[in-house]
Amino acid sequence: xxxxxxxxxxxxxxxxxxxxxxxxxxxxxxxxxxxxxxxxxxxxxxxxxxxxxxxxxxxxxxxxxxxxxxxxxxxxxxxxxxxxxxxxxxxxxxxxxxxxxxxxxxxxxxxxxxxxxxxxxxxxxx
Length: 126
Prior knowledge:
It contains no helices and eleven strands. By secondary structure, the protein is mainly beta.
């Protein structure tokens, strides 16, 4: 099973940018589909973004045009570039990995993923 560690969260003002990183170990992520989810207290974990082996991407509507997910297989790392941050983006952000049988598939359900990181806090002030 792949181990995942998120980093890059912090406290920023509305309109600022952050880049989250998810470093994988134990396995190479070249044959994994990857995803980002977020969660706030009292709410279900929400899908944010996903990427396939070949960098096909999918985003939740609320972040389209503001967030970009990418992968760097040579560094065994995936990223979430977050621009124009809003207070409603405040959450703990989690990285997830799934052993995928297809180069092009992406997954938006948390039950589809095999491995999860510990999360990194993103707080956006007004």
